[in-house]
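Severity: low
Component: inverse-folding endpoint
Summary: output formatting inconsistent between runs
Steps to reproduce: submit the following structure tokens with default settings.
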């Protein structure tokens, strides 16, 4: 990876990570809409909830999906680490988010979220390995182009929501 590619990768990753913080810790809140406050802890993985199964399954899938890019970028930016170490780093990020939610009373702290987030990160590490095998040294370029495209799309959607709600 060239120095220019590495800088672009860190920028794309930084934008993604800021979006992840906004999504997980700040629940997509924006000025004029206060953060939800509440604190609960669920230590039993995949425990039955009061909400219906489809909503629970969708939430678990979304948790995994939003952590896939984390796995991709951890693997891309730290290629000398083993896949297990890369997945462990993603798990540590998830645990940190859950702990911060608890400390600041920003929602439910849930072991299922940690498991699903870690599964998403593991999928991202695997996806990076596949992209690297297919595209070789161009895998990071493909990853950055896709990442930027998704970020522009989500940025546009966030702007529309903010404009509509003001």
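Observed output (run 2 of 3):
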């Amino acid at each position: 990876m060239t120095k220019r590619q590495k800088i672009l990768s860190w920028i794309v990753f930084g934008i993604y990570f800021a979006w992840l913080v906004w999504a997980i810790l700040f629940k997509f809140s924006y000025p004029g809409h206060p953060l939800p406050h509440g604190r609960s802890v669920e230590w039993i993985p995949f425990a039955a909830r009061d909400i219906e199964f489809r909503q629970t399954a969708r939430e678990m899938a979304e948790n995994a999906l939003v952590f896939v890019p984390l796995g991709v970028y951890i693997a891309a930016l730290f290629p000398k680490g083993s896949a297990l170490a890369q997945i462990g780093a993603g798990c540590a990020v998830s645990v940190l988010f859950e702990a911060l939610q608890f400390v600041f009373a920003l929602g439910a702290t849930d072991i299922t979220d940690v498991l699903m987030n870690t599964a998403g990160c593991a999928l991202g590490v695997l996806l990076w390995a596949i992209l690297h095998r297919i595209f070789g040294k161009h895998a990071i370029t493909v990853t950055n182009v896709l990442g930027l495209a998704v970020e522009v799309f989500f940025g546009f959607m966030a702007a529309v929501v903010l404009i509509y709600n003001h």
